[in-house]
Amino acid sequence: MAAAVETPPSSTSLPKDEHEFPLPAVLTHPSSTPPTLVTQGAEARLYKTTYLLPSIPSALKYRPPKAWRHPILDARLTRHRILAEARILAKCRREGVPVPAVYAADEAAGWLMMEWISGAPARVGINEWLRRRKQSEEAQGHEGDAVAVTGDKEQDNDLVALMRRIGGAVGRMHKVGIVHGDLTTSNLMLRPWEKGKEPSNGHTPSHDGLLDGDIVIIDFGLASQSSSDEDRAVDLYVLERAFASTHPRAERLFSAILESSYREAFKQAPVVLKKLEEVRMRGRKRSMIG
After folding, report:
1. CA 193, CA 144: separation in Å to the nearest integer?
2. What is the dihedral of CA 253, 212, 33, 8, to 10 degrees?
3. Are 191 and 117 within 8 A, CB to CB?
4. Which of 42, 48, 114, 269 has its CA 20 to 30 A from that of 3?
5. Of the residues 182, 212, 214, 235, which is catalytic?
6. What is the tens place of the pLDDT at every residue in 72-99?
7. How far is residue 50's CA from residue 35's CA, in Å, rounded to a whole number?
8. Which residues contact 165 (CB under 8 A, 6 or more apart)?
9. Are 242 and 185 in contact (CB under 8 A)?
10. Strand, helix or coil at 94?
């Protein structure tokens, strides 16, 4: 489940008695900003609300009780998962990994309040960039299947720069011993750069702004603390397969660009990338066998 994303058009802000789902108690207190249900997943719900002041937006992740699970077991699992995610986020923040800040948590009540990350998921920006690229090709008379993006052309620079930022962010996360467990371009937010200021990572803003912004990794619900090269390789493989299925035209950029920036951010990258080759082989065998 994604955390801290821009509210989609279908989301609604309703009085507490009109919500489709029961609200966690923390959201039933008087507030100048009614909570907005952003997304509903199998394990948790994400609300946009405020923290302390109406001017501080926040994301509240709530794990409601599971009626089909034994109450004692459910309470223990919820407590463990809330605390584990909060600890991982806190560790990442201390080590300089770009993740949302933790504002508050109540493991007994099953909620975690985090910094609201403005902007859109990288998935949205990449897909829109690819759509415009295809339109430009068609306007130039190219017909048939869209041309694959290889990163060799000057017009690919914006996407290449984004891939480098993604590789660097994932590399820093793995460097501090965190494995995400669900790396996709939906869980990589593009936080807009402040106007009038140079990007903190030194990249030049693009002309249309679609791929501008610092990468912020979100949704650590499946994350774990691990220094295993195998676990890191599987993490990269999940991102690679997600990238290939969501953005097939730009699939070649994964190994060409993202892996190189991953090496720059993480000294043990060569070992992990060697493991990644083994994971790929296992994945191909599984696909062949069915």
Report:
1. 37
2. -50
3. yes
4. 269
5. 182
6. 999 999 999 999 999 999 999 999 999 9
7. 8
8. 201, 203, 214, 215, 261
9. yes
10. helix
Beta carbons of 90 and 139 less than 8 angstroms apart: no
3-state secondary structure of 49: strand
Q: What is the pLDDT of residues 207-258, one digit of tens each?
A: 678 899 999 999 999 999 999 999 999 999 999 999 999 999 998 888 878 8
How large is the angle between the packed helices 122-139 and 229-246, nearest 10 degrees? Answer: 40
b/e per residue, 55-91, with b = 16+ CB within 10 A?
Answer: eebbbbbbbbeeeeeeeeebeebbbebbebbbebbee
Q: Give the three-state DSSP class for 112.
A: strand
Q: Of all helices (H) and strands (E), which one includes residue 103?
A: strand 102-106
Residues in the chain: 290
214 is annotated as an active-site residue: no
Q: Which two three-digit tokens encode residue 259?
A: 């892996």
Q: Which residues contact 30 (CB under 8 A, 6 or more apart)?
A: none
> 3-class DSSP state for residue 161?
helix
Instruction: Dig out the tokens for 14 from the structure.
Output: 């309703």
Question: Which tokens belong to 131?
Answer: 């759509």
Which range, of 29-33, 74-78, 113-117, averages the lowest pLDDT? 29-33
pLDDT of residue 70: 95
